[in-house]
Amino acid sequence: MSSLLSDVEDQANLSNACFQFISTKNDREQLQCNSNPESSFYCIKNAQQSSLFLPSTSSVTKQGSASSLFTVIPTISQDTANSMKSSQTRILIKGGRVVNDDGTMLADVFIEDGIIKQVGLNLNVPAGRTTIDATGKLVMPGGIDTQTHLELQFMGTRTIDDFYTGTKAAVAGGTTTILDLVIPTKEQTLLEAYKQWRERADAKVCCDYGLHVAITHWNEQVAADMETLAKEQGVNSFKVYMGYSDSFMLHDDEIFQVFAKCREIGAIAMVHAENGLVVKELEKEMLKLGITGPEGHLLSRPEKLEAEATYRVLTIAEQTRCPLYVEHVTSKAAADKVQEARLQGQIVFGASNTASLGTDGSHYFNKCWCHGAFHVMSPPLRDDSTTGPYLMDCLANGTLSTTASDHCTFNGNQKALGKDDFRKIPHGVNGIEDRLPIIWAKGVETGKLDINQFVAVTSTNAARIFNMYPKKGRIAVGSDADCLIWDSEATKTISASTHHQACDFNIFETFQCRGLPIVTIVDGKIAYEYGELHVVQGSGKYIETGCFTDYVYQKLTKREQLRAEILKQQTVERELYTGDVVDLTKSLSNESKTSPKHANHELPAAGFHNRPATRAGARNLFDSSFMLSGEQWDDGSVRKTTRVQQPPGGQSKGLW
């Protein structure tokens, strides 16, 4: 690894190096420098040149004085510096068709300093820029992946993709923003878990990211932390689990309270919809039958349980008047429940995931245990091959609003934790890199989605729901320069041997894609170009998502006002009750001492009945003589034993 920039050979290799500026007071000052092990490292002590290069981050450290480690580069001219800087921060995309969710037009796009500055034809742009020819191609907003699980400690192990490899793969697949899920441990507060996620992500992400936070238990401290996260840390979505009964699951009353808090602070409630308690019992049943392989995962989670949980949580959301986001809808029945609620006007959004759209649950029955285990996720893939097309139709007709990868990857040796018991197979599959190509192939190429709907379900709808629009999810003046150039004719075969994800298996192995991102621009910089990644670790930034987004809460706010008016109209004004109130303790005491048996057909003793006798002195027939003991008030009466000789209607036997 070179540490000196002192000869012609090193100076010729500048394009392969990472640069970082470290200021020094003198050449003998002790320095510590982080270097990238994948390339040569040079430290530039000239402040003028330092602004031309992004800092690198890595785990390799070198100690020493400035003069022994680094050589000063001579000052370059101001014109040269300005030209180099401009070419990195200015991009002109020419000749492409700009595609947004609401329309398509032929236009050029000029980007400067990470912002889209101009959109149109015959643009007047400054010199010193990088020009990309997009003739015959589509220019779209970068994808927004609404749920990922990077560096997640789960089911005894940790996901294999961290925030660097995960976001690097996302960029290669055309995604420029991810929303990861913070899941606190039982020992952590929400704020502690949030801080831990920020520390993990900030140093590694290659694209922008936001955070959801899971609520895995409920108390006053959790409620207070939710409010703090919403108001001070830019978190506007909180997720509850109805599955995972031994770890994450909340009961209905707790879900009600979480949803009520979400509505109060203007957040969006998210849900993993499964009946965790019934699933647990069905898992035991499968094991009793000797089913220990991956197929047991599907068989213990029938479609009806997902639909039941979806209906139940929709009911709770309706009663709390809280907006709801149903994650990873994997079945037709669950999608139908979301559709019913939306048709009735409920504020609910449904999301499908890449796996459910691109493959199915038949893989659980594969003869190869590893193959089946790699497809284990929850809720599971359905073995009905028509489920994927049905869910795509739901995206097209608006039943479902967004798509997520739900990227949660484990290698084969991690999946093997459940080799003898399917319950121990870590849940999760890949999809962060393949999401856009799969949806294009299964949606646009089949005629189910048009290109504007494709942009909506992969980017714009998510930006609107989670309050990032129009900074994200749109190609327009003032929007973030997160965009991609899409070639609808480009093809590739998906394979674990060529993907950028860290996992050693791909559930879409051998799938032939038609339609791919060929250039991905992140924050105004080319991060992926014709198969080559140019990402910088730690260059992404955290995106705060504000509460009370108009797209979600505008209707709800108005409905709350109308509801208050209606309830006032339904209030009944009446005089206060001033009569006696029974003393339950005395009443119970008297009842225990009073015998219900009475002789000579006398009326029962006071206290046995609730209603007084009629004015004629007879028993009030509206009164009940039922007692829990089974006794009647006239049990003590002597009943006539003489048989009736001439009953009404005559005898039932005899000569006629």
What spatial order of strands do you see in the largest sheet? 12-15-16-17-18-19-20-21
CATH class bucket of one domain? Alpha Beta
Described by strand count, sense and barrel closure, the largest sheet is: 8 strands, parallel
Helical residue percent band? 25-40%
Hey, roughly how much beta strand do the residues contain?
15-25%
Class per helix and strand makeup: alpha/beta
State mean pLDDT (0 to 100 scale): 86
Apparent shape: elongated
* CATH fold label of one domain: TIM Barrel
CATH homologous superfamily grouping of one domain: Metal-dependent hydrolases
The total count of helices amounts to: 20
CATH architecture descriptor of one domain:
Alpha-Beta Barrel
Rg (CA only): 34 Å
Tell me the span between the first and last alpha carbons.
125 Å
Which regions have little confidence, pLDDT < 50, spanning 5+ residues? 1-76, 597-601
Total beta-strand segments: 25
GO cellular component, one term: cytosol
Protein name: dihydropyrimidinase
Keywords: Hydrolase, Metal-binding, Zinc
Pfam families: Amidohydro_1
Walk me through what this model shows.
The protein is built from 20 helices and 25 strands. By secondary structure, the chain is of the alpha/beta class. The strands form 6 sheets. It has an 8-stranded parallel beta sheet. Helix 7 packs parallel to helix 8, helix 8 crosses helix 11 and helix 11 packs parallel to helix 12. The longest helix has 21 residues. The termini are far apart. Belongs to the metallo-dependent hydrolases superfamily. Hydantoinase/dihydropyrimidinase family. Its cofactor is Zn(2+).
